[in-house]
């Protein structure tokens, strides 16, 4: 089995109180793939422009990520410019230049079609739906979104939710999507549109996993140094879906463990800019931090 991800592959210019990076490797599919590659085989579908540095593709390949679905089109790569204030809670978007992304028509290579798990990373919900229509339904379909699409394509997003098993989004997005300030009610409202499980990420306060009649709280790791939160959400999703794919099951306990793996992976991502921390990550570090997470909230 393998995981198929369709999403943005980007150049990110990011400023945090701890420094800045210009045109660093980013994008929802990038962070997801890198994280999920520690758990299962990953097939990536996305698009870049002719300016995309070949060493960034090499970095993805070095993790065994299949990039045959990464198309190069004439023009410039999707470019996101954002910054964070001291609390690092919420990104402030300065500009979103879709560039080649505006003409993106996801092509799914034949070799990818048997992927058992699909992650529709943060892109236009109409494109997310288009991908779903064109492939045989995988065992699990998960998706993400963001304020940009909730504002511009809310109806398409709600339609998509009718075909999705799990949605992973942050607290602000859940409130914006449902118009419901209370997160428990927001999760219930989202489940009514389709998903059986809803994961609401709360940044440094961890994540909530909602099922039909259960709720699980995954803590966030109390890190002393957070350098750049960009990509934490997609990295969480990579650990979450990655664990489900590796486990090959979807019962509630497996879901709860997946939420912890999501938090583990996100906790590494934020320790440096772009993929700089993830690049040096080892399986041992992941296992060690997973055990730390369990210890964090156990009483005896
Ligand atoms: P997050 O995991 O939520 O921090 O996602 C960060 C990534 O989302 C960045 O690397 C951006 O390149 C990417 N991104 C920002 N805006 C958009 C958008 N409108 N559509 C797709 N990807 C985006």
Provide key terms for this protein.
single chain, alpha/beta, UDP-N-acetylmuramoyl-L-alanine:D-glutamate ligase, 9-stranded mixed sheet, 4-stranded mixed sheet, 10 helices, globular, binds adenosine monophosphate
Short account of what is shown:
By secondary structure, this protein is of the alpha/beta class.
Characterization of this structure:
By secondary structure, the chain is of the alpha/beta class. It has a single domain, classed as 3-Layer(aba) Sandwich (UDP-N-acetylmuramoyl-L-alanine:D-glutamate ligase), CATH 3.40.1190. Helices cover 36% and strands 25% of the residues. The protein has helices at residues 28-36, 54-62, 125-134, 147-152, 154-161, 171-178, 183-193, 232-247, 252-269, 283-296; strands at residues 2-6, 10-16, 19-26, 41-49, 66-73, 79-83, 92-97, 117-120, 140-143, 166-170, 197-201, 207-210, 215-218. The strands form 2 sheets. The protein has a 9-stranded mixed beta sheet with strand order 5-4-1-8-9-10-11-12-13, sandwiched between helices. A 4-stranded mixed beta sheet has the order 3-2-6-7. The N and C termini lie far apart (37 Å). Bound molecules: adenosine monophosphate.
